[in-house]
């Protein structure tokens, strides 16, 4: 997906783009697999899916589960590039958080916050005060700081200021600010406050949850950006084996495929193409589960997200569950796909993810994958090879968008500017209308 978005953006920026993929489908790691038979093959499961699973081609199963924040960076990229023309989205019905072995809805309105059994009455008042403070907080207006220095005061101190208890801190940091660990507590609070703001603003758009999901699965996203690239003259080649990345004097000059060399000045790729220029930074376990029932205690939602904060299960990193269903054209009628994921911390990853799987029982079929996480050791300044990072365990696209903006900056030497993108697009579309 990162490569598809960048090829779209670079094409809009007037660069000549050739996009090669050794796979026969768009999106690489972030593809959606259809029909269901292909998923069984991919995970080397014996036999074929049972008849109870319905028609194989009714399934579109994401390999990497992620939702889009309604007000987040990816939605902005989709809107500015008008890739929204090729996609339809649905709002995810609810976000839940795990506390003491049970799941609770993350309050999405003041009324829900007051009715929620997540907190006691006095805690609710303090939490509401905190949310009002966050909503009014403006990093350019010191009058909204109330004695907090956004660049110095830690988030731990901000929680203290509002006298919030541990459980509330857990769900604020992990279900609203969407941190994977507790490291953020001792960092300056500005980033956390902005994350909670993003959550609230995303929530305000549609009301049920802050998350959106494309009909027919996430595989639609890379295809949308590939189309954008094509409109601006980009060329796409699927099923194209990469034999060698050609380097002269330490700098990339081309890519060799089937005996021919395509020449280039810059190259963008994922870690699997350049194993000597990346380093392993961890592992993620993902378990795709097929269910015939909605998840218990979610009000029979046909889609939801569940976050299990690390403190609740004595871990360092959170466990995530994303659930979608036939309502999103990704599963047969009456079937649900729940994907659990977390950062691996021990030698027994399946045991680590058990708290999530327990919430999903009974599970009809499981597909387990453990992936290595890679980060580039080469920033590309010399070699002009720009490498994306592997997808992490989070269930939203914000970290992926940070990576895209980072690669853009390393390639172009300037920050990625949404407004400029808009102007360029208007110039091109404006001319077409006059002809």
From TrEMBL:
It holds the Pfam family GDI. Its main location: cytoplasm. It is found in: Cytoplasm; Golgi apparatus, trans-Golgi network; Membrane. Keywords: Acetylation, Cytoplasm, Golgi apparatus, GTPase activation, Membrane, Phosphoprotein. Transmembrane segments: none annotated. One of its GO terms (molecular function) is Rab GDP-dissociation inhibitor activity. It is a peripheral membrane protein. GO terms for biological process: protein transport; small GTPase-mediated signal transduction; vesicle-mediated transport. GO terms for cellular component: Golgi apparatus; membrane. It comes from the Eukaryota. Belongs to the Rab GDI family. Interacts with RHOH. Interacts with the GDP-bound inactive forms of RAB3A, RAB3B, RAB3C, RAB5A, RAB5B, RAB5C, RAB8A, RAB8B, RAB10, RAB12, RAB35, and RAB43; binds RAB3D to a lesser extent. Interacts with DZIP1; this interaction negatively regulates the interaction of GDI2 with GDP-bound RAB8A. Regulates the GDP/GTP exchange reaction of most RAB proteins by inhibiting the dissociation of GDP from them, and the subsequent binding of GTP. This is Rab GDP dissociation inhibitor. The lineage of its organism: Eukaryota, Metazoa, Chordata, Craniata, Vertebrata.
